[in-house]
């Protein structure tokens, strides 16, 4: 594994030899950890079934859970999926950005059946990350890139998180520091008459509904045939068990705080980790996965989490916490 430390705003990134080396590695079916604005992605050639199998193997991810394909532009996306007026509105407004669209897959798209988990739909995103878009453009490939972590565990928002989980499977890690959004992309399905929110994420529901001019339906969990990532009941889980909406804390628990008005017993908590003292949901989303890692006391221990509002990015934060707290097999 080779590490490339890269400034996110470096205008010369495509002129470096290591950039071409990483393009060659992706074209050869290798796995590369790449930062996006949301979380770090475990990237591989989405048109190469063997490369996609490598993603599932490295993460320990069930192969019925589809992968998001990242592309460099709306024009590139239109070679893989059918875009109706709604899809064009959302793509024009929010790409590049933390929005994934699930759309009917075109029969001419070379994206592998394994990447879409055998479905007739495809999940597409144009990320804000300049390096991810540049790699897609230089290689001419859509890059499948789920979060770079072990399946079901806490997503990686730093290169160190990724290396700790996956170093034996990676040819390269691109390190550009902590990801600014901190939760995965919002996923919206446009394959039926009613637009449906499959996963809340780094783009608020309210912003999407304002552009569409109609409310989003909300999909439930699906543990057998999910249409998109992040729909499994148990996901994003630390080793410790999680207790939500905590209004008290015991000495054996870590506490994840939101605001400074702490619950009873906070002074005796085993560990205190703040999401946002100022109760800023954007800051809390960016810190969520790091906070879960810092609060993790290990198996048979507990993390208490203070209540988080459900509006704006709070919907995505509460979604991740609910899945992290779900019963595990």
Automatic annotation (TrEMBL):
Keyword tRNA processing (UniProt): yes
Cellular-component GO terms for this entry: cytoplasm
Ranges annotated as spanning the membrane: none
YrdC-like domain: residues covered: 16-203
EC identifiers of the protein: 2.7.7.87
Catalysed transformations (reactions): L-threonine + hydrogencarbonate + ATP = L-threonylcarbamoyladenylate + diphosphate + H2O
Binding site for ATP: 61, 65, 121, 147, 155, 199, 236
InterPro entries (alphabetical): DHBP_synth_RibB-like_a/b_dom, Sua5-like_dom, Sua5/YwlC_C, Sua5_C, T(6)A37_SUA5, TC-AMP_synthase_SUA5
Any Gene Ontology biological process: tRNA processing
Residues annotated to bind L-threonine: 38, 70, 125, 145, 185
Signal peptide: none
Keyword list, A-Z: ATP-binding, Cytoplasm, Nucleotide-binding, Nucleotidyltransferase, Transferase, tRNA processing
Recorded coiled-coil stretches: none
NCBIfam families linked: L-threonylcarbamoyladenylate synthase (TIGR00057)
Function: Required for the formation of a threonylcarbamoyl group on adenosine at position 37 (t(6)A37) in tRNAs that read codons beginning with adenine.
Protein name: Threonylcarbamoyl-AMP synthase
Organism, scientific name: Pseudovibrio axinellae
Name of the gene: ywlC
């Amino acid at each position: 594994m080779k590490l490339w430390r890269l400034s996110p705003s470096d205008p010369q990134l495509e002129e470096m030899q290591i950039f071409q080396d990483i393009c060659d590695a992706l074209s050869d079916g290798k796995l590369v950890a790449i930062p996006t604005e949301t979380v770090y992605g475990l990237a591989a050639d989405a048109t190469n079934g063997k490369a996609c199998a490598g993603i599932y193997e490295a993460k320990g991810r069930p192969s019925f859970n589809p992968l998001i394909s990242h592309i460099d532009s709306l024009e590139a996306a239109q070679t893989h999926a059918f875009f109706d007026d709604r899809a064009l509105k959302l793509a024009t407004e929010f790409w590049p950005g933390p929005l994934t669209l699930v759309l009917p897959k075109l029969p001419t798209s070379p994206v592998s059946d394994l990447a879409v988990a055998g479905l007739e739909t495809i999940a597409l995103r144009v990320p804000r990350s300049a390096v991810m878009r540049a790699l897609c453009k230089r290689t001419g490939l859509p890059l499948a890139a789920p979060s770079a972590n072990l399946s079901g565990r806490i997503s990686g928002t730093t290169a160190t998180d990724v290396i700790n989980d996956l170093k034996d499977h990676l040819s390269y890690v691109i390190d550009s520091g902590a990801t600014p959004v901190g939760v995965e992309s919002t996923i919206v399905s446009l394959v039926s008459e009613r637009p449906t929110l499959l996963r809340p994420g780094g783009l608020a529901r309210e912003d999407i509904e304002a552009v569409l001019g109609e409310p989003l339906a909300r999909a439930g969990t699906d543990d057998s045939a999910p249409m998109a990532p992040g729909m499994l009941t148990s996901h994003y889980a630390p080793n410790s068990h999680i207790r939500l909406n905590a209004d008290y804390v015991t000495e054996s628990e870590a506490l994840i705080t939101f605001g400074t008005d702490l619950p009873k017993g906070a002074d005796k908590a085993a560990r205190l980790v703040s999401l946002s003292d100022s109760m800023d949901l954007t800051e809390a989303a960016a810190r969520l996965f790091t906070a879960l890692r810092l609060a993790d006391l290990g198996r048979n221990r507990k993390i208490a989490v203070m209540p988080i509002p459900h509006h704006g990015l709070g919907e995505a934060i509460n979604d991740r916490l609910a899945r992290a707290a779900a019963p595990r097999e």
